UniProtKB/TrEMBL annotation, chain A:
Coiled coil regions in record: none
Entries under Gene3D superfamilies matching the protein: Periplasmic binding protein-like II
UniProt protein name: Extracellular solute-binding protein
Residues of the signal peptide: 1-24
Keywords from the UniProt entry: Signal
Organism name: Streptomyces radicis
Pfam families associated with the record: SBP_bac_1
Database matches in InterPro entries: Bact_solute-bd_prot1, SBP
PANTHER family reported in the protein's UniProt record: ARABINOSE-BINDING PROTEIN-RELATED, DIACETYLCHITOBIOSE BINDING PROTEIN DASA
UniProtKB/TrEMBL annotation, chain B:
Coiled coil: none
InterPro entries: ABC_transporter_permease, MetI-like, MetI-like_sf
Organism, scientific name: Streptomyces radicis
GO CC, any one term: plasma membrane
UniProt region (Disordered), positions on chain: 1-25
Protein name stated in the entry: Sugar ABC transporter permease
Length: 438, 319
C-alpha cells in the first residue's frame, strides 16, 4: 500500500516537473516562413509611457487603414518591467510577434535563438531598409545576421543648464574638451554657483558614461573574451569622479539615490546640478522638468569629453523591432515593421518618441513638418549634425550588460562611501564581468 | 458507572476483508469530497507544487531563462556559501532588519494596545487610525513617499531645519542610515499586530487583576505577572508572523532603492538579491538555490521560535 502511494507521489511530482519545464519552454522553435501577406492578428510589445502608447496607437490606426485584413494590438510596460516580462515570456515561448528591442540587450535574445533572422524578409522586399544608413542597420546585427530593424537612435551627450552656467560666470562648454579641460571647467563653474548647487552630477556609476570614457581613450569596451580594456582605466575613472566629489564640484555622494530616480527628479532636472549626461531625447524631458523647478529654463548640449578631440566619445544606441522565432504571423509582423520604418505619416505621428527615426527620408519630413514640436525638430537636427560631422561612435553590447551596469554602480558606491578601495572595487568589477560575460 | 454501547444490528465494526470493495456510498462521499477539494488541489499542484518541484530541480542547474537548464550538481549552493559575498551581505541586511524591526513592532503595538485597552473614549476611531498604516504601509505609494521624506532636501530635514537643526544628510542615500529608514517604515505598520494584541488583552479575565489588587499587587506587578504570561501565546504568534514577514520583505527596499539594494548594498534584502539574480542577471538556477536556502532559513527560524515557545509561552490549560 505504502509503495503504491510512494509511486503515485513520485509519478505526480515527475509529471508536475515535466509540465512545469514544458511550460517553461525548454528548447526553441524553428522560424516560420513568411506568407508575404499582411492578413493576420499580431501584438506589438514595447516599453514606454502612456504618451508613447498613444502615438503608437495612431501609427497602428494608419497601418490598419493601409492593411485592412491585418489586426495589431499593443502591449506596453515601463522599461525595466518590459525587459523582465520579455525574458519570462521568451522562456515560456509566448512572445508577441513584434517586440521592441534595444542594442543594449537584444544580443542575449539573438544568441539564444529567441529572435528570428530577418535577412530573408529584407531580401524579399517585405521589409525595406534602403533608407536606413548601413552603420545604423549594423546595430541590429549579430555575426552578420539581422535580428533587429533599427527604428530609432539615441546618443549620449553632455547636457548643461544654460542659465546656471551663465550665472556662474564661466563660458559655455565646448565640443572639443578633453577630460582634464572638462574638470577645470567644472571647477570654474562651481566657483560661481550659489550654495547648495553643484557643477555636475556624478557620472561614475553610469555604464554609458563609462563606455564613452573607454572609447574616448581609444579602447574597446568588449571583445570575444569579455572586457577589452585594462583595469587601470576603470580605476582612473573612479578616481576622476571621487576627486571631483572631494572638491565639492559634484553633487554629494549621498545624492546618488536621487540621481538614479526618474528623469524629472534628477539633480540636473531639479536645478541642483548644472551638468549631466543624457541621451538626446532625454534632454528635452529634462528641460521640461527644469522649467518647473525654477532654476533656469534651457538645457543645451555638447559632445562628451574625449582625451583626443578627434576621437568621438558620443556613443550611439539603437532601439528597434524584432520578430521572435515562434511567431506564426511573420507576413503581418514584417508588414508592420516595414510600415513603422518607412511610412511618412506614421513617422509624423510617432514624432521620434523612442529615439530619432532611422529612416533618413522620414527624418527630413519630420523636420519640415509645421506640426513637429521644436524640441523634436532640435533632437533630429542635433543627431543629423553629429552624423554628418562624424562625431558619433558605436559599440556592441554583449549579453550580461545589465549585470555589469548594476555592478559598476554598486562598486563605485562602495568606493565612494569608503567601504572598499578603488583598486578592490575595480578588481571586483572584472571578477563580476568574468561570470556575467561567460 | 459503566456504560455499555451496543452497535445497531446490521452494521459491522470490522473493516471490509482484503480485496473487498468499499461500499458505494462511502466511495461517493469521497468523490464528492475530492470534487469540492479539486479547485484547491489544482491550484496547489499547478501553481505552487509544480513550480516548487521545478525550482528545486533548477536550483541544481545552470539556467539563464532563455536557454536550456544544464545540470550543475551542487555548484549553486557551493557558490552561495563560499564564493558570493553579496549572499552574506544580503543575509546580514535581512537579519539586521529582522532583529531591529520585529521587537520594535511588538513593543510599539503592545504599548498602544495596552493604552487602548484602558477603556478610553473614541476607541473605534483610534483603532482605525492606528490600523491604516498597516493597510497602506507596504504600498508603492508609501515607499515613494518615504523617499521624499528621508532624502537630502526631504520633509524630515525641512522639519529639522524649522527647529534650528540644519542638515542636508540624505537618510536614504547614506549606507549608515538607509536601512534604519526601512525599519521605521516597518514599525510604522504596527496596526495589525496592535489589533491582535488588543483582542488578546480583552480575553484576560478581569477577576485575575482584581484578585491581584486585593493581594496588594501594583500595576507593574500585575502587568508582569498576569498580562504578559496570559498574552504570551499572542506575543508568540505576532513574533512568528513578523519574523516570517521580515524574511520576505521586498517591496519597500525595491522602491526606495530603485531595485538596487543601495546605497552600497545597505538595503539589499535577501529577497531583493534573489530577484536581482533571477530577473536582472537571469541566473535563474542560482536564484532558485537562493529561494530554497531562504525556505530552510525561515523554517529554521520558525523551529527555533517554537522550541523557545515551550519555555516562555504560557497556555492557560497548562498544569
Amino acid at each position: 500500500m505504502r509503495t503504491t502511494h510512494r509511486r503515485r507521489l513520485s509519478a505526480t511530482l515527475a509529471s508536475a516537473t515535466a509540465t512545469t519545464l514544458a511550460l517553461a519552454g525548454c528548447g526553441s522553435a524553428e522560424p516560420v516562413a513568411s506568407t508575404g501577406r499582411a492578413d493576420g492578428s499580431i501584438t506589438y510589445s514595447f516599453w514606454g509611457n502612456p504618451a508613447r502608447a498613444e502615438k503608437v496607437g495612431t501609427v497602428i490606426d494608419l497601418f490598419a487603414a493601409a492593411h485592412p485584413d491585418a489586426d495589431v494590438s499593443v502591449e506596453v510596460a515601463e522599461y525595466l518591467n518590459y525587459i523582465e516580462r520579455m525574458t519570462v515570456r521568451a522562456a515560456g515561448g509566448g512572445l508577441s510577434c513584434a517586440i521592441g528591442m534595444q542594442s543594449t540587450f537584444y544580443t542575449r535574445y539573438a544568441e539564444q535563438d529567441v529572435l528570428r533572422p530577418l535577412d530573408d524578409l529584407i531580401e524579399s522586399g517585405e521589409i525595406d531598409v534602403s533608407q536606413i544608413p548601413d552603420e545604423v542597420l549594423e546595430a541590429g546585427r549579430v555575426d552578420g545576421t539581422q535580428y533587429m530593424i533599427p527604428t530609432g537612435t539615441f546618443a549620449r551627450l553632455l547636457g548643461y543648464n544654460v542659465d546656471l552656467v551663465a550665472e556662474s560666470g564661466a563660458p559655455p562648454p565646448t565640443d572639443d574638451m578633453t577630460w582634464d579641460a572638462y574638470a577645470d571647467w567644472l571647477r570654474e563653474v562651481q566657483a560661481g554657483l550659489p550654495e547648495g548647487v553643484h557643477a555636475t552630477e556624478i557620472e561614475a556609476p553610469n555604464m554609458f558614461s563609462f563606455t564613452s570614457w573607454v572609447i574616448g581613450h581609444g579602447e574597446e569596451m568588449f571583445d570575444e573574451g569579455g572586457l577589452a580594456f585594462d583595469q587601470e582605466l576603470l580605476e582612473e575613472w573612479f578616481r576622476f569622479w571621487l576627486d571631483l566629489t572631494d572638491e565639492g564640484v559634484t553633487v554629494p555622494v549621498d545624492m546618488l539615490a536621487e540621481q538614479n530616480a526618474a528623469l524629472e527628479l534628477t539633480p540636473l532636472a531639479q536645478g541642483a546640478a548644472a551638468v549631466g549626461t543624457r541621451d538626446i531625447p532625454q534632454l528635452h524631458i529634462t528641460e521640461q522638468a527644469l522649467d518647473g523647478a525654477g532654476r533656469g529654463s534651457e538645457i543645451a548640449e555638447v559632445s562628451i569629453p574625449s582625451p583626443d578631440p578627434g576621437r568621438s566619445a558620443n556613443v550611439l544606441g539603437t532601439n528597434g523591432i524584432s520578430i521572435p522565432t515562434g511567431c506564426d504571423q511573420v507576413g503581418t509582423a514584417a508588414a508592420f515593421i516595414d510600415f513603422f520604418v518607412n511610412d511618412t505619416e506614421a513617422a509624423l505621428a510617432f514624432q521620434s518618441d523612442n529615439g530619432i527615426l532611422t529612416n533618413t527620408r522620414a527624418q527630413e519630413a519630420l523636420v519640415d513638418d509645421a506640426d513637429t514640436p521644436d524640441s523634436v525638430r532640435r533632437n533630429v537636427t542635433t543627431l543629423r549634425e553629429l552624423t554628418d560631422s562624424g562625431d558619433l561612435t558605436t559599440t556592441t553590447y554583449p549579453s550580461g550588460l545589465t549585470t555589469l551596469t548594476t555592478e559598476l554602480s554598486r562598486l563605485y558606491q562602495e568606493a565612494a562611501f569608503g567601504q572598499t578601495s578603488v583598486e578592490d572595487a575595480a578588481s571586483a568589477f572584472f571578477t563580476a564581468a568574468e561570470r556575467a560575460l561567460d | 458507572m459503566t456504560i455499555t454501547m451496543e452497535r445497531p444490528p446490521g452494521r459491522s465494526a470490522a473493516p471490509p476483508p482484503p480485496g473487498r470493495r468499499r461500499p458505494l456510498r462511502s466511495r461517493r462521499d469521497n468523490l464528492a469530497g475530492y470534487l469540492f477539494l479539486s479547485p484547491w488541489l489544482l491550484g496547489f499542484f499547478l501553481i505552487i507544487g509544480g513550480p516548487m518541484v521545478a525550482s528545486l530541480y533548477l536550483s541544481f542547474t545552470d539556467y539563464s531563462v532563455l536557454g536550456t537548464p544544464e545540470w550543475a550538481g551542487t555548484d549553486n549552493y557551493e557558490r552561495m556559501l563560499t564564493d558570493d559575498p553579496r549572499f552574506w551581505a544580503s543575509l546580514t541586511v535581512t537579519l539586521t532588519y529582522l532583529l531591529a524591526s520585529v521587537p520594535l513592532v511588538q513593543v510599539f503595538a503592545l504599548f498602544l494596545a495596552s493604552l487602548l485597552n484602558r477603556g478610553i473614549g473614541g476607541l473605534t476611531f483610534y483603532r482605525a487610525v492606528f490600523y491604516v498604516p498597516s493597510l497602506i504601509g507596504g504600498s508603492v505609494a508609501i515607499a515613494i513617499l518615504w523617499r521624499f521624506l528621508f532624502e537630502g532636501d526631504g520633509l524630515l530635514n525641512n522639519a529639522l531645519g524649522s527647529v534650528g537643526v540644519d542638515t542636508s544628510h540624505s537618510w536614504i542615500g547614506t549606507p549608515d542610515t538607509a536601512l534604519g529608514t526601512l525599519v521605521v517604515l516597518n514599525v510604522w505598520q504596527f496596526g495589525a499586530a496592535m489589533i491582535i494584541y488588543l483582542a488578546g488583552l480583552r480575553q484576560i479575565p478581569a477577576e485575575l487583576y482584581e484578585s491581584a489588587s486585593v493581594d496588594g499587587a501594583g500595576r507593574a506587578r500585575r502587568y508582569w505577572s498576569i498580562t504578559l504570561p496570559l498574552l504570551s501565546p499572542v506575543i508568540f504568534f505576532n513574533v512568528l508572523m513578523n519574523t516570517v514577514g521580515a524574511f520576505q520583505a521586498f517591496n519597500t527596499a525595491y522602491i526606495v532603492s530603485n531595485g538596487t539594494g543601495g546605497p552600497a548594498d545597505s538595503t539589499l534584502f535577501y529577497t531583493l538579491y534573489l530577484y536581482q539574480r533571477g530577473f536582472v542577471d537571469f541566473e535563474m538556477g542560482y536564484a532558485s538555490a537562493l529561494g530554497w536556502a531562504l525556505l530552510v532559513l525561515v523554517a529554521a527560524a520558525a523551529a527555533g521560535l517554537f522550541a523557545l515557545s515551550r519555555r516562555v509561552v504560557f497556555y492557560g490549560d497548562e498544569r
